[in-house]
Write a structure and sequence with these properties.
Shape: globular
Strand order of the largest sheet: 3-5-6
Strand content: 15-25%
Structural class: alpha+beta
Number of strands: 7
């Protein structure tokens, strides 16, 4: 087994406007595709497209991870149709995403795409700079697709990505001994 070292960290730049292409890429993780270059072959879905909102999940209780992992085993989709998924979640995903990915497609083509590593920053620093340092990395679960680029997205915080028990896959590039960030495997000779 290779040793684990810290990944290098680059400063985070002030985000721009998220366009429809970003929304389509985000939604592909839930098995929702519009016509175009983002499809089941170019951007596989997660092994489940089931979404969590305050309508179908007690958001105050959190802890969607256990249910999410169970649903991965059965390939649960966002819904049999977009309308069915919207009825379950209270979201208003466009019918342009019909048809939804089936449970069989989630099981056959799905990947690990909703447990992701995301930066932790001090948002107050945006007021004084367009570039701010990344303080740490978090492992989060993407809870639901988005209907419009201006939507607020919800993520479930699962802990620091550097925690050996983190359910997130390691990612990044190897840094030096003084680096901070998520642990990544490194081969040494």
């Amino acid at each position: 087994m290779p040793p684990f070292t810290r990944a290098t960290l680059e400063p985070l730049r002030l985000p721009g406007i998220m366009g429809n292409a970003a929304a389509r890429a985000w939604n592909s993780r839930f098995g929702l595709y519009q016509s175009g270059p983002v499809n089941l072959n170019t951007a596989p879905p997660d092994r489940t497209g089931y979404a969590y909102t305050g309508v179908n999940w007690d958001a105050s209780a959190g802890n969607a991870l256990g249910d999410f992992l169970t649903r991965r085993g059965t390939g649960d989709s966002y819904g049999t149709t977009v309308q069915a998924g919207n009825a379950l979640t209270g979201l208003s995903i466009s019918n342009a995403y019909n048809p939804t990915t089936t449970p069989a497609q989630h099981l056959a083509s799905g990947a690990d795409r909703r447990l992701v590593v995301t930066p932790i920053v001090n948002c107050g620093e945006w007021t004084t700079s367009n570039t701010i340092p990344i303080r740490a990395w978090a492992c989060v679960l993407m809870l639901h697709p988005i209907a419009h680029p201006s939507d607020i997205v919800y993520l479930e915080y699962l802990g620091l990505s550097s925690d050996p028990a983190s359910p997130c896959a390691t990612s990044g590039s190897v840094g030096g001994p003084g680096s901070v960030g998520p642990l990544v495997p490194a081969l040494v000779q």
